[in-house]
Amino acid sequence: MSVARDAGGGGIQPAEYVTLHGRASSLVIEVSGAEAPLWRYWGPRLPDASSPGPGLRSTRHVPPSSLEFDQPLTIFPTFGAGWFGRSALHAHRDGQAFAQAFGQCDQLPGEPRRATFRLLDDVARLSVTVDIALDDHDVLTMSTVLRNEGDAVLDVGWLAAGVLPLPGACDTVHSFYGQWSAEFQPQAEPLTRSTWERQNRRGRTSHDTFPGASVTTPGATFDTGLVYGAHLGWSGNHEQFIEWLHDGGYQWQFGEWLAPGEARLAPGETLASPPLHASCSVEGRNGLARNFHAALRRLLPWPGGTMRPRPVHLNTWEAVYFDHRLDDLTDLADAAAAIGVERFVLDDGWFHGRHHDRAALGDWWPDEGKYPHGLAPLADHVRARGMEFGLWVEPEMVNPDSDLFRAHPDWTLQIAGRPLLTGRNQLVLDISRPEVAQYLFDCLDALLRATSIAYLKWDMNRDLTTAGVGSGAAGYRKQVLALYALIDRVRAAHPAVEIESCSSGGARIDFGVLRHTHRVWTSDCNDALSRVAIQRGALQFISPEVMGAHVGPAPAHTTGRSQPLAFRAAVALPGHLGVEADVRRLDESERAELAAWIALYKSLRDRLHGGRVWQGEAGDSIVWQAHGEAHGEARGEARVEPSASVSDPAAGPADEVLLFVYRLQPPTFRYPPAIRLPMLRRDCAYRVERLDPLPPAADTGIHRPNTTPLDDALRDGGATLDGAWLAAAGLPLPRMPAESAIILRLNAQP
Ligand code: DGJ
Questions:
Q1: Domain limits at 510?
Q2: Phi/psi at 487 (5° precision)
Q3: How many A from CA of 35 to the centre of ligand 1?
Q4: Do 104 and 183 fall into the same domain?
């Protein structure tokens, strides 16, 4: 951080600036002690000595029919300061103090690359602390703490976690919609002079309103152009909006959506926002993804501080559902071990009275009929086959038909006089109540002590509604904080256990939960064609090693569509790989094929997990993604320390790239378009070889007769191709049938 002082002169107002520089971005804030600091800049890196010069007000006239007092965008704009945009704070004290303004601003001592401002409104009697940190991966983390300095209750309806300035050149906002089994559906909307807004009121992160978006400027591509992105690290309700301002720019506010009465601060109480993670890049949306992946890698709480190679899962859900029989499961474990699975996860159906989804949630001990000697015999069998044992739980939930609900009907979130609305036949426990949290901790602790469990799949299968706590006040926020506390308590007691965040598939994927867990279940949809889109969306923010990706059965249980095993495996392979099928039912050649894919994953996972991800589209429904390390850096560096610097593109283009090419629909062009690979070095050739195992002859369809001499060479030891050519003109592709994939490794030959 550097502080610059403009010399001023004449009528020009001198000004003081706080400037934070990242690797490729900078931000500049104009500070005075008597108001909230003004946003001056957030964008591509400025030279160290660069300064805006005159204070902002010295550069702006008073427009006709306007206040004489000019109020530009601040880091925390509020109504009481003559601001007509949306306020960063909606609050009142029994109908008073609705218009806040800050007459005092102190900068608190901080670390390099971090600025913390304490704003005081001695009329409305509140203070706000805004913290802004910019890391060396260009990720800006903002958070806000509001304190009631008065002597009566302060009702809060909105507190922005962060207020970001966007330049007027921004023209498109990219966000996600979706539903169960169809998360991360991309949508692009123009930015106009009307406000763009998204809200999530489902009480969990949600399938349909991921708490993040990116904003592009005209001409931005996957790899070039100025883009901005923001993500709220929070697993509950949220709101974001982008509002056009009269100087042609925009303000982007992001924070927690608060239900009426949810945040009432007694004198001296504080309300802390979740962290807002934001970034800008001149390297297009792939550059933005790189920054978010690096930020996430710093947050992930790996046991022992280091990520282990992501073990191959077998998850029992789509193999046996609720029909748990010890013999079947031990057979399944044998079959899984034989194809190379490393972690066997026993999904829903194992606990007391759980034979369908209408009963038993809350009764967290092994079903006496299915597991007369507890889970240890199965876990021991699994471990004897060299695999870890994992277990599914859904602690926040209770079925009305359960011993727990019969004993404690008052433990659910509820509002007196309102019907209890069920979702998947279940209700939500008020886990902010200490006795409820204690019960759940005791159940989980007992399970983890009784059996050698290395992994919990922590599920959460319904939205929150009538989420009343205690006297009936809204409890969404408390619920999220209580969840984090419960997970942390379990982790503190069992530090080696890894935890997956699952929520009917991908309804709880965010940096908030990933500060406490180690993987997400991306979607219940294992249809590989659908998965391509879901995973491409998730990869905009989430790094591949935490993205659960399973090879499911054909036909897929959620869509009824069938795809060749090679396509299903190639789509799952770049993520955290698993199998979600009854592998006993595969014939011998399919089992051998799946084993070959698992072996390939094991040989590549160190390269896939920890470096950069580039995505692109070739046209004619061919999409691709590449994983690699930048030239000049140690491979696998990300795995050594979560805080280590990873894949710094400043180190140069990539030496080694793993390329996944997916054809989604049948070709409409006679010849496939070439794939331009902008991440490659221009100064050398690459050895290019094809890695995907050859499918059995019967699966190849019309593909084999259409191979080219180049394709044959890539399969048969590889070919040497010029890096500059591949970057500029592109890699020629073979003719591929719909729903097929090829995987290539490109190695620089200096
Ligand atoms: C929803 C999850 O997303 C599935 O993977 C599975 O665990 C079921 N719940 C079990 O009820």
A1: 309-408+431-463+485-585
A2: -60, -45
A3: 51
A4: yes
Residue 347 CB–ligand 1 contact under 6 Å: yes
Which residue from 358, 392, 397, 463 has its CB within 8 A of the most atoms of ligand 1, so it is best to mutate?
392
Catalytic residues: 459, 524
CB of 287 closer than 8 Å to CB of 227? yes
Higher pLDDT, 647 or 443: 443
Query: Distance, CA 543 to ligand 1 centroid (Å)?
Result: 22
Question: What does the radius of gyration of the chain's CA atoms come to, in whole angstroms?
Answer: 27
Q: Position 370: which residue type?
A: K
Q: Could you identify the atom of ligand 1 that is nearest to the CA of residue 457? A: 7
State the pLDDT confidence band at 644, using cuts at 50, 70 and 90.
very low
Give how many domains the chain has, as a whole number: 3
Inform me whether the pLDDT recorded for 184 exceeds 60. Answer: yes
Ligand 1 centroid to residue 357 C-alpha, Å = 10
Please answer whether residues 378 and 389 qualify as being in contact, where contact means their C-beta atoms are separated by less than 8 angstroms. Answer: yes
User: Is the distance from CB of 181 to CB of 530 less than 8 angstroms?
Assistant: yes
Average pLDDT in the 272-283 region? 98
- Does a structural domain hold residue 38? no
Residue 711 forms part of a structural domain: yes
> 5 falls in which pLDDT band (50, 70, 90)?
very low
Domain boundary among the residues 299, 334, 350 is at 299
| 677 Cα–ligand 1 center, Å | 38
pLDDT digits (tens, 9 = 90+) for 583-622: 999 999 999 999 999 999 999 999 999 999 999 999 999 9
338: tokens are 């034989």
The pTM for the full model equals 0.95
Beta strands in 122-192, from DSSP E residues, in sequence order: 126-134, 139-148, 154-166, 172-179, 182-190
Low-confidence winner among 27-31, 450-454, 456-460, 651-655 (lowest mean pLDDT): 651-655
505 lines ligand 1 (CB under 6 A): yes
Tell me the C-alpha to C-alpha distance, in Å, between residue 231 and each of 136, 175, 195, 255, 630: 18, 11, 18, 10, 25
For residue range 145-165, list pLDDT tens digits in order: 999 999 999 999 999 999 999
Angle at Cα 459 formed by Cα 458 and Cα 465, nearest 5°? 130
Contacts of 123 (CB under 8 A, 6+ apart): 80, 97, 100, 101, 103
